[in-house]
Design goal:
The complex is a heterodimer of chains A (234) and B (306).
Chain A: E1 2-11, E2 14-24, E3 29-33, H1 40-48, E4 55-60, E5 63-64, H2 70-75, E6 78-81, H3 93-101, H4 107-115, H5 121-124, H6 135-147, E7 153-157, H7 165-182, E8 185-189, H8 193-196, E9 201-206, E10 209-215, H9 216-219, H10 223-226
Parallel strand pairs in A: 3-8, 3-9, 6-7, 7-8
Antiparallel strand pairs in A: 1-2, 1-4, 4-5, 9-10
Chain B: H1 3-13, E1 23-28, E2 31-36, E3 41-45, E4 51-56, E5 61-66, E6 69-71, E7 77-86, E8 91-95, E9 98-101, E10 108-118, E11 123-133, E12 140-142, E13 145-150, E14 155-164, E15 168-177, E16 182-191, E17 196-205, E18 210-220, E19 225-234, E20 238-248, E21 253-256, E22 259-262, E23 267-276, H2 280-287, H3 293-304
Parallel strand pairs in B: 1-5, 1-6, 4-7, 5-8, 6-9, 7-10, 8-11, 9-11, 10-12, 10-13, 11-14, 12-15, 13-15, 14-16, 15-17, 16-18, 17-19, 18-20, 19-21, 19-22, 20-23
Antiparallel strand pairs in B: 1-2, 3-4
Classes of the chains: A alpha/beta (234), B mainly beta (306).
């Protein structure tokens, strides 16, 4: 169970996350959505420990992890897939997957993780995760690094961004399996209806606050009507 | 050979002594101590200056030539000239390198001047590793000069590595390429403490369709200083691509001063250089796998200098 209590984050005099309180039960699949700049990614980075909150607490399975480092949170089986994953000169796909896994991987395991994101291990394992790969390829490898881990909470920040239609269908299937077979709690930032349709629950973040939260069937039908780019039009 | 000598050899050449079936010349503390030629690779002393001539017969295929140098005597100042004559169509791997073990307070220095004459259509892989160790306060200095003449259609892969223990180095590389010659230079360097490294590389592309690719990766730690000065001159229809990437840490200083000249309308000369600290997102990414910041840093550097 992940519990956020009165969580806030300020940067440059702006309140990016404002007093968020929410719990996410074990094994739940939650899609976080909302307009750009609303604070979704910041919330994900706060949970992973990449940013430190200016107020509030984060509890994971009863432990206060607010002051825990990224690495300490990782050891508590929390994982995070970047929206824009970094590239590494001289780091092969196999090495990155092995680091994620924490111990040596067999070729079959690598195949399993890469196939799940629509990549062929024979083509990619020895390639470096550098500028020679396209944005979509790097993004899929990023998701594979989370599959290679033994996680209890997986956070994905817009995993569909930059991924082609064919690979997207495969990804949807992978998230479904991750949720159903492995019972991992998933927090997934997305704007895609197909992904939202898989969620148990949808949380709409707007202006750093939870604007709406509820079961998928309750939130999804009216979601688009609720968004407005301009405050004056509301 | 003593254990220290074997360990130095292992560091610079991946071997602990002569490998049967290969050509081998070991120079230790200013003198040749062991030599083995093969039918196709003849190693002979120079008559006019210290050093050796290595004659590789035409069409020699798949042979290895080891010419390591080790300095274990503190205060030794060694200057050597090694000339390689690679015959037409030969395909060989040459493994050089120098290791210094200095436990004393005097400076140990090795200046190796290597000249390559690479015949038509020959293919050569040349690996040169520099390494220093020892508890003494005496400096460990290596100043290699490499001059390369490449004939038509020849190919050379030049791979140089200096990762640890050399206090000061000035590396000079000069290359002259004829038509269709192809040169690949990979330079990897890490400095720390108060070390300094200067690398001057000059490539003249004199033949039609000659090409060079230089990839330089370096890491500067603590108070060390590095200066790179790559020069490419295109005198014919040719291609040159120079890429210098450096990771800067602590108080280290790194300069990259390129000089590219095109003297022909179809000469394509490109230089790219980037110097900066480790990208924080890379560190964060690896920390999300459970690595500490120090472990993440080490993994990034290891890959970068791979």
């Amino acid at each position: 169970m992940l519990t956020l209590t009165n969580l806030s984050f300020r940067a440059d005099q702006h309140e990016i996350i404002s007093n968020i309180t929410a719990s996410f039960p074990e094994g739940s699949f939650t899609v976080i959505t909302g307009p750009n700049g609303g604070g979704k990614s910041t919330l994900a980075r706060l949970i992973m420990g990449i940013e430190q909150p200016t107020a509030g607490t984060i509890h994971w399975n009863g432990t206060d992890i607010t002051k825990f480092s990224i690495s300490e949170r990782s050891k508590l089986k929390i994982g995070y897939a970047f929206q824009q994953p970094p590239r590494f000169k001289g780091m092969s796909v196999k090495k990155l997957l092995t680091l994620a896994h924490g111990k040596p991987l067999t070729h079959e395991q690598c195949c399993e993780y890469l196939s799940a994101v629509g990549l062929c291990a024979n083509d990619y394992l020895d390639r470096d995760v550098d500028q020679s790969l396209s944005g979509g390829e790097v993004k899929r490898i990023e998701i594979a690094t989370l599959l290679a881990r033994d996680l209890e909470l997986a956070i994905f920040d817009e995993p569909e961004a930059g991924i082609d239609l064919w690979s997207f269908a495969k990804l949807v299937e992978t998230f479904q399996q991750l949720h159903q077979n492995k019972k991992i709690s998933i927090l997934l930032i997305s704007h895609q209806e197909r992904i939202m349709k898989m969620a148990d629950e949808i949380v709409v973040i707007e202006n750093g606050k939870i604007a709406k939260r509820g079961a998928r069937d309750e939130i999804l039908p009216n979601l688009m009507q609720d968004f407005s780019a301009c405050e004056f039009k509301k | 050979m003593q254990e220290t000598d074997k360990a130095l050899l292992a560091q610079i050449a991946g071997i602990r002594g002569f490998q049967p079936g290969t050509a081998f010349n070991l120079r230790q503390n200013g003198a040749g101590v062991e030599r083995h030629s093969t039918q196709n690779v003849q190693i002979v002393n120079k008559s006019d200056q210290p050093g050796i001539d290595i004659h590789i017969s035409s069409n020699t295929s798949g042979e290895e030539v080891h010419i390591p140098v080790i300095l274990t005597q503190s205060g030794m100042n060694d200057l050597v000239y090694n000339d390689f004559y690679v015959g037409e169509g030969a395909n060989v791997k040459i493994i050089a390198g120098c290791g210094i073990h200095n436990d004393g307070c005097d400076t140990s220095q090795h200046d190796g001047i290597h000249t390559f004459h690479i015949g038509k259509n020959a293919r050569v892989t040349y690996i040169e590793k520099h390494y220093g160790e020892g508890e003494g306060s005496g400096k460990r200095i290596l100043n290699p000069t490499t001059v390369i003449y490449m004939e038509e259609g020849s190919y050379l892969e030049l791979d140089t590595v200096q990762i640890k223990g050399v206090d000061s180095t000035k590396r000079t590389t000069e290359c002259y390429l004829q038509a269709e010659a192809k040169l690949m230079i990979s330079e990897r360097l890490m400095t720390h403490g108060k070390q300094s490294a200067i690398s001057d590389v000059k490539v003249e592309l004199n033949g039609v369709n000659s090409s060079v690719r230089i990839v330089s990766r370096s890491v500067g730690k603590e108070g060390s200083v590095q200066v790179f000065h790559p020069i490419a001159v295109g005198n014919e229809r040719c291609r040159a691509h120079i890429q210098c990437d450096s990771i800067l840490m602590d108080q280290a200083k790194i300069s990259s001063i390129p000089e590219i000249t095109a003297n022909h309308v179809d000469a394509q000369i490109v230089h790219e250089a980037a110097i900066g600290k480790i990208n924080s997102e890379q560190l964060i990414k690896l920390e999300t796998f459970g690595l500490s910041e120090e472990e993440a840093e080490a993994v990034i550097i290891e890959g970068f200098l791979k």
